[in-house]
Structure formats: C-alpha cells, structure tokens
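dude i think i finally got it to work??
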Amino acid sequence: MKIKIAELKEICISILKNKWLNEQDAISVFNEYLDAELRGKGSHHGFHSFAAFCTKLEKSEWPAVVIKEEDNLFYIDGQKNLWQVVCNEYVPKLIEKAKKKNIAMMGIYNMHSYLMPGTYARMVAENNLIAMIFNYWSWPRIVPTGAIDPKLGTNPLAIWIPGKEYPIVLDMATSEISMMKIRVAKKLGKQIPEWVAIDKDGNMTRDPSEALDGGVLPFGGYKWYWLALAIEILTKTMFSVDIHDKTKVNRGFFFVLINPEAFIPIDKFKDGVDELIKDIKQSRKADGVEEIFIPWEQSEKIKKNNLQKDYLDLEEQTINDISLSSKTVTWK
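look at this
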C-alpha cells in the first residue's frame, strides 16, 4: 500500500508530539524510521515497529543527568529518556570534546530505546571524526556457540570512518537475525530464514514464536559470539543496571570518538581511505559478480533510488497500526 512520505511524516510527528516529544526530537525519531525504510531495512528498523514503539512510549519524569564530566568524557544517567533525546543533546558536545582532546568517550545507562546506532555515528563522521558505538540490549537473546540457552544481548555496534568518496560504515547486530525481524515475521504470519534461531529445546526453527521462546544464533559462528561477549562486557558491565531493578532501564551505551588529525592531516587520511576502497573495488571479480561493494554502499544506492519517489510502499496493516497507535500493541 502506497503512502506519501509527507503524509506519513505529518501523521507520525503528530502522534509523537501528542505523546510528549518536542518538534526536534519527534522529527529525529521519524527520520530514523524513514532512513531505515529508504535504505531497504524496513523489515527490522522501519515503520513496522512504529506503532508498538509509540504504544510503549512513556515520558521520563526527569532530563538526562551527567554523573561525571571531564575534558574528554561524559558519564550519563539517561533517566529513561529516548535515545534521540539524549543523543541530540550530548553527541554534539562529545564531538567538541573529541576535536579538542583527540579522543572522547561517553557512557550512558538507563536510556529507553534506540533504532540504529549508525544514525549518530554518521553525525560524528560528518565532523571528520571516527565513531565507534556499542550497545547492550536488555534481554538475553543470543545463544553462545555450543549452548541452548540465550545468555547475551544482540549487542549492536556501529563504526563510521570518514572518507571523501567512500566513508566506511558498519551498523549491525551481532546476531544472525535481528529481534525486530522475528517480531515482524510473527506479526505478519511469516517464517524466518533457516539456521538463524533455535527453539527453547535447542532445535533449529523457522517459527518466529518458537524463536522468541528460544534464542538467536551469533552471526558468523563462534567468532561473533566472542564479539557479542566483548561488547556486553564493555556496555553491560560498565553502563548497565541490575536487570531486576524495575526502576531503571537495563540498557548500556558506549561511545568512542577518535580524531584522525591527532596522527595525520584529515585530507590525507580521507585520501588514504578512498585509495584503499578503490583498490578493493578494482579487484578481479568472481564469476557472476558485477560489482564489489563496501559496507553501506548498497543501502546508499537503494536510498538514492527511493528518494526519487515521494511515497513509501508499506503493508496495509502497518499503516493501520500507525493510525491506531494510541491503542495497545503488545509484542513479546
């Protein structure tokens, strides 16, 4: 079902403002959902989840609190505020710290939700800095290699490295499949791919309900299980809270910003990034391969093509859910 982007924006911004968000933060939330749709990532970060997000959206009683600040550091209690609310305020300040001190870090705990860590990593890279963002997700979902029970969060990470023609972009979870894709599959009555999830007894399953009761596999086998474990230590151990403490949100975020100019002029650095990428893309191609892509390049092309249209093609159920988002929408 087609819906004009301008019409969808008006509906979503109105809903978010009625919930309690101000204009800037409402637009930031909408833009993240829209960016995911335009990039072809709507199945796990797009408007499929907007209604459920709005249903669970509660206003924080307090603004985020800076627990500790130094010349190159923020440590923040998010006070259950949204990812966009906290990051819109503090990521620009962290960028200034990194420019002055060449490296800056920020840890945040007790923050409500997020969509794509790459959104704010992009903001950092546009200021000629390298960004690394790690996130601990509240519930155990990833099953360690060789185990049956889920013990780790899906623990997304984002890394942005500035370049002139070819910035390097990683924005991904450490699981074979995102939990949002599983929830959307359940909502739409579809199966999930093979070999990405198990049921509660450790059997491979394509049933999203069974996967939600069981767990998801780490992407790439045991090496990504190790990466998920490392991210969990960096985020949950330092910046999360006791999962049994119902007064706080059990999510941890860790930002690291690096200024390449501490070591090399920024233009020379960007030229080096572009030279490396061009060398990769000019490599001999395997049979049947027309182009060698770098991270994010395909989604950029998809977005560029989609921006030529003034509409999105969404499931009719998704549009109806958004229109009725003041009513309860419950996902496990």
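The chain has a mean pLDDT of 90.
im so relieved honestly
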